[in-house]
Amino acid sequence: MEYANMFTELEPFGEPDCESELKLLGTDEYSKYYFQHTPFNQEVMSRKTFLIIGRRGTGKTALSHFFSFQKVIPNAAVIDVDEPAAFQQVMSKIAESAAQSREVAIPRLVKIWEFVIWSIIFRQFQEKDLRIKAACIFGDGKEKVSAFILHVLKALMTKFLKTDNSLADELESLISSETIQTAKAAVLEVAKKNPIIVAIDTLENYAVKDQSMMRATAALIQCASNFNREFSQHNLHLKLFIMAEIFPYLKEEILLNTLKSIRHEVYLHWRPKDLLKLISWRLWRYLKFNNINGYYENKTDWDKHRDVLIEKWEPFFNRHLKNEFNLVEKSFPYVLRHTQMRPRQLIVLCNSIAKCAQEKGNFPKFTTEDIIMGVKQGEELLADEVFNSYSSLYPRAARIAEALSGLPLIFKGNELDRRASQTASQWTAGEYSPSAFRQLVAELGIVGRVRQIDERAGIVEADFEYANNSRLPLLVGDTCVIHPMFYKKLNIQITKNLCVYPFPDHEEFKIFDVA
Question: Counting beta carbons within 10 angstroms of the beta carbon of residue 362, is it exposed (0 to 12), middle (13 to 18) or buried (19 or more)?
Fold first, then answer.
């Protein structure tokens, strides 16, 4: 299939998930479509970086595929461990059998992960050296990596989990055996010429009450930390992706030594200028390969966000628009404030805007009506996905959040306690409390804390937990605000002509000053 023809299958701003784009474009063409002008692409290639943390839709899977065509580490061989759901259940069973206390269980699970990771590497490079091939003791099948891990874990269960006491000693003996140690040395010889990157994606949905799986994940983080410290200097790199939705629980309650295991981590917090460049790049590629009216012809320096704004955003979206409340806003902040700063959410909204424009024959230019209608039609889908991503952490999260329905745009924090009492019947037995309700609405990014109100400009600046590396407590005396993404879903009452800007208090996020 020709590349231009492939692009006719894509939405104007691309697909909302990396997997779909890979299926449509293939790996080689996807590497040309991938936008590389973002800080994450450099940060994750650092030798010190092994832990990458992001919420659903922030680009974890895309970054994991980036390793296969990056240029920072030349001639790198990449092992991409995706689809972890294939082996989750077996790993959970092993974790259940490891020990009763996390202090004993996690070190044992670290050993299991260590063996699994080396088994993956041995399988990948078995044809390079007979010493490596000899270490493929649980087979050298050609199935997908996730299926191979499942096979290894089942073999470990059969061999070592007859009694708890045999697990640590026998596995330690296996890992320290001459065969395995010789194979490791051979791998490091290979890595001198061809650096090796192992990228491990993690599950999209976790139940934090599943102690066995949480311990297994904590052990994987500790294993990755140990692996990075010992082998990254030898061109053998491990990159681990973790969901930000569960990371606070791991850090606060499960990990044994956070100062030792969590270091040089990269949080996928997108800046407005990077999202602007990403979304504009996608539209430009679509127009170019579909040869639409020559809009793609002028050259732009994609590292300069002001150039991108003027040359690749404003010709299509205009600089300003008059919003639903008759306030004049700049078009990019208007669209972006209806997201939680995630690429997937911005892609969904912009495709929704494009659809409205196509139906009216305006595409590739978007009128104010196209933008406002597209955002309204897309934002409820975004809200639903946020609820879905937390469904394992908070069963019936969407039903619980309905208690916020009909709230005004701005309200006092004590109103949350009053609304919380209406949700008691929706919580799992023993889970409900007013503080749990406040934590839920903060974690999901529904409710934020007002930082500043500019009545003259009609702007409310607010902090939301999703933009921070730590929790955002909502106290009874705080002035609170609902995120714009949830207005329609929760039937929020707009009683004042104010725009909520849900961006951190940082110079990088003063996007309404960009002109």
Answer: middle
Angle at 21 between CA 86 and CA 268, to 5 degrees: 75
Range of the domain at 508: 392-513
Residue 328 and residue 457: Cα distance in Å, rounded? 9
- The answer to whether residue 351 sits within a structural domain is yes
Q: Report H helices in 292-433.
A: 305-308, 314-317, 331-336, 343-360, 368-389, 397-401, 414-420
Instruction: Decide: helix, strand or coil at residue 408.
Output: strand
- Collapsing DSSP to helix, strand or coil, 269 comes out as coil
CA distance linking residue 266 with residue 247, whole number of Å? 12
Give Cα separations from 355 to 4, 68, 364 (angstroms): 20, 33, 10
- Do 439 and 329 share a structural domain? no
Give the whole-angstrom CA distance, residue 165 versus residue 359: 67
| One domain for residues 157 and 239 | yes
Q: Beta-strand (E) ranges in 297-374? A: 320-322, 328-330
- Give residue 3's pLDDT band: very low, low, confident or very high (50, 70, 90): very low
Residue 190 lies in a domain: yes
Domain-ending residue, one of 251, 266, 281: 266
Half-sphere exposure at residue 193, Cβ-oriented, CA atoms within 13 angstroms: 5
Structure tokens at 37: 């002008």
pLDDT tens-digit map of 132-182: 999 998 776 677 888 888 888 888 777 655 555 555 667 777 788 899 999
User: 10 Å Cβ neighbour count for 255?
Assistant: 24
Identity of the highest mean pLDDT range in 2-6, 195-199, 392-396: 195-199
Statement to judge: residues 484 and 435 lie in one domain? yes
The tokens of 445 are what?
Answer: 């990014």
Could you tell me if 257 and 301 lie in one domain? Answer: no
Whether residue 216 lies inside any domain: the answer is yes
For residues 289-306, give the mean pLDDT: 81
Q: Is 432 a residue whose pLDDT tops 90?
A: yes
- Does the pLDDT of residue 417 top 70, yes or no? yes
Residue 1 is assigned to a structural domain of this protein: no
Q: What average pLDDT does this structure show over 502-511?
A: 77
Task: Kindly give, in sequence order, each residue whose CB lies less than 8 Å from that of residue 361, ignoring residues fewer than 6 positions away.
Answer: none
Structure tokens at 227: 């692996």
- Regarding whether 313 and 243 lie in a shared domain, the answer is no
From 387, 412, 437, the end of a domain falls on: 387
